[in-house]
């Protein structure tokens, strides 16, 4: 570009184009390539655009002035730009570290909240067992299993019988073994007065999420 404008500009601003090129190289590629462009521009501009043109053996006042002013101005701009780049890098690094620490604190808070919830659920389960131990039918441990891209429903992994387990109709026991969910259930239950005939009784199933696992507790309703 400067070579095309040389007939119009003559010896005016011989190193401006190279200074701009060096600054752009510094911004996009760093200090070392910018200094390389700066030195190459000094030689090319002095040879082509500083009179006497295309003469290597003659050094006059114009050559000396250009050799001093062009690198000085370009180096000042490049140095300032390099400082800005490093300050920007430090700011981005600090922001990245702060973001990672913030996310870590969020994860820790979430883990503490889950742990507190599990402990509270454990205490609730223990209180539940102590209050309704004579009306328990069964306690079922459940787990969540992954299936493909999604998550399958919770599957039973074990049943602990309660005091009223033997009074429940075997068909209901088999049904609950495979499809027990929280909520109200109608259960055929034999009473002490009539051990043969069974009557429908309302039962309540509650879920407890503890640190030891998830449990479904089925008991006779109040």
From TrEMBL:
Q: What is this protein called?
A: DUF4118 domain-containing protein
Keyword Phosphoprotein on this protein?
Answer: yes
**Which InterPro entries does this UniProt record tie to the protein?**
KdpD_sf, KdpD_TM
Q: Which organism is it from?
A: Caballeronia novacaledonica
Q: Which domain of life is it from?
A: Bacteria
Entry's Gene Ontology BP terms: phosphorelay signal transduction system
Which molecular function terms from Gene Ontology are attached?
ATP binding; kinase activity
UniProt KW keywords? ATP-binding, Kinase, Membrane, Nucleotide-binding, Phosphoprotein, Transferase, Transmembrane, Transmembrane helix, Two-component regulatory system
Membrane-crossing segments per the record? 29-50, 62-81
Instruction: List each copy of the Sensor protein KdpD transmembrane domain by range.
Output: 3-91
Q: How does it sit in the membrane?
A: Multi-pass membrane protein
Where is this gene product found? Membrane
Q: Does the keyword ATP-binding apply?
A: yes
Alphabetical GO CC annotations of the entry are: membrane
